[in-house]
Structures are given as C-alpha cells and as structure tokens.
Amino acid sequence: MVQGSTAAIPHFQVSSDTLSDDLAFGAFQQSVQDVFLLSRLSEGPYRLDIDAWNLGTLMAGRFRSSAMAFDRPPALVASGGLDHVLLQLYVEGGFTGMADGRAVTVAPGDIVVFDLTRTISTRASDFVNISLLIPRPYFEASHDDVAALHGLVLPAARSMTGMLASYIIAFTERLPALSAGEAGTAARATAGLATNILSASALPEARSRPPIPSPFRAITLEIEARLHDATLDTDTLAASLNMSRATLYRAFEQVGGIADYVRRRRLTTVAMQLADPAQRRRKISEIAFGLGFASESTFNRAFRIAFGISPREARLRGSALGPVADPTGAENPTSREFARWMRVLKA
C-alpha cells in the first residue's frame, strides 16, 4: 500500500482468469468474510472478477460472479464488526431474497440498499454489480432512521435511479486514475449524492408507514449520547429534551417503541465493540456495563436473543475471522487485507 497524496488509492483485484475455480471462490469468501457467508449455486465453471478500491472513508468495487447465495445471519452481524450501509447497483443479473424479513427482488439497473446491522439472505443469478460500502454517519446526517432503508430497492425505470446509476458507473471507471490526495473529496461527494438522492426520492416511497415524526431525530441523538447511562428511560429523556412522554411514545411507535429501540442500539454497539481489536483486552461485562446494561445476566440473555450466539462466542468468532485457506493450504493475504479495510472504514 503506497502512501502520499499523489499515490494511487489502494486497489484489490482477483480473477478466475488467473486462479482455479476453488481458489477464486476462496478469495471471494475471504475478502467479504465480515459481510456475507457465500455459497455457490451452480456446479459448472465458476467465474469471478473483482476490482475494488479503498478511499479511506468509502469503499467501492465492481464484482462479476457466477450464481451465488449471500447470507448475513444474526451471528455474523454480531461478530463482523460492521456498522455500515451497503449500496449496490446491479448492472447485470439480479437476485431475490429477504432483508430482515422483508422480501427483496432486484433486476438489472436497480439499486438496492442494505443496513449491515441487519440480517440478509439473497440468491443471485450470474451478475455484475457495483458496490459502495459507506459508513453510517454519512446517512445519519440526512435520514432519521437509517434502518428504514434496509432492503430498499430503487427501480431502474425511475429517473433519479438512472442519474445515480450513471454517476456510480462513471465514478468506478475513473477510480484507477484517482490519487490518494483526491480520495477523501471523491468519497464525500459520492456519499453525499447517494444519500441526497435516497432522501429526496426514495425514502418517502419506500416506507409502507407514514414518515417518522420530526422529534425522532432529536430523540435518537440524545439516546446515542446517553447509551452508557443505565438510568436512561422515557422519563429522563422527556426531562432532558423538554418533551412530554406522549410525544416520545408517538415518535417511536412506528419503529417498535422507544425501549426496543434503545435496547437494539445498545446491543448493536456492544457487538461492534466486541469485534473491535482495540477493545480486545476489555472484559465483556465492562463493555456491557459501559453501555447501560445494569445486569450481566440480563445483557447475556438479550444478546443471545438478538444474535443467536453468546457475547463470548461473538468475540471469539470476530477474532477468528481470518484467512480462508485454499485447497493447498496457502492463503491470500490480499483478500485478508481487503477484509481488514472494511473493519477500519470510518467517515
């Protein structure tokens, strides 16, 4: 990896043209091990071409693959350490599947959005897609509830979808010539365009429920700032925000209630910290107590219900997410480095 403002940005590439089918598939598995569990859907020859770039605050890649199953079960959400949004343009092919229980179908030209703190299970035909991995803070500036975007599909026939698709294709074509000094500007511009188009044209039509009331954003900001506070409840929130309890309840009735929202944010934040190598020496109980859980047994039970594994298992799986061995016992350090890029990606 070359440093310096005039150096090219870090680039990852793998192709079945230079690797056997098994090695190519193993490299794909290793590179996205924190995002998806992969399964091949056909027994014939396997085709793979990946070109991806790390812009520091955004990752972009063009993926061509034979038919594939992509799964992101609760245990991987807990152990993967990713709190990002995945935006994909399907240039060729498509998929059907589920996003946290929501049916999703994508056709050529469509753009789909996934919140990686949620579960995913899809089955794709032979495809070409362009994927953008974008840290959550880019979306939080313009979306009250980022989770509401999970599984959202922008149809190819929509004008704004075509505008964003054209930009994504042109952006990817020019990445090889981009310098490291230009990467930050390009990442911010791309994330800004994507979030603004989603906010302006997609979100109101994506919800089957009315828009979330305006106090929602102010309340979620206060919750994020006080996740560590074990005394956080509706009464203390109402007092600190000078709102009535009724206003708080109305703001959250469309997302499962305020108590459920706080619990989900605490559990997700704990999961991200358990997967963070910088937090490896901290006790699990210390992390839980630091995020407002007053009882270790209550925390352990809630974590297992949410993710299907214990906090200790999540930490062990996160630390064990490493190289996927090829049939000869060798490993692909480039794929491993690509996987590491995702974990350290920050806005």
Characterize the structure shown.
There is one protein chain. This protein is of the alpha+beta class and 347 residues long. The chain folds into 2 domains: 11-209 and 322-344, Sandwich (Jelly Rolls); 215-320, Arc Repressor Mutant, subunit A. Helix content is 44%, strand content 20%. It has 13 helices and 12 strands. The protein has helices spanning 21-31, 74-80, 136-140, 159-174, 180-206, 215-225, 234-241, 245-252, 258-274, 284-290, 296-307, 311-320, 333-344; strands at 11-15, 37-40, 48-54, 59-65, 68-72, 84-92, 95-99, 102-106, 111-115, 120-124, 127-135, 152-154. The chain has a 7-stranded antiparallel β-sheet, with helices on both faces. Strand 7 (95-99) and strand 8 form a beta hairpin. Helix 2 crosses helix 12 and helix 4 (159-174) packs antiparallel against helix 5. The chain starts with 10 loop residues before the first strand and ends with a helix. Residues 1-5, 203-213 and 322-333 have low confidence and may be disordered.
What key phrases describe this protein's structure?
alpha+beta; Arc Repressor Mutant, subunit A; 7-stranded antiparallel β-sheet; 44% helix; 20% strand; globular; disordered N terminus
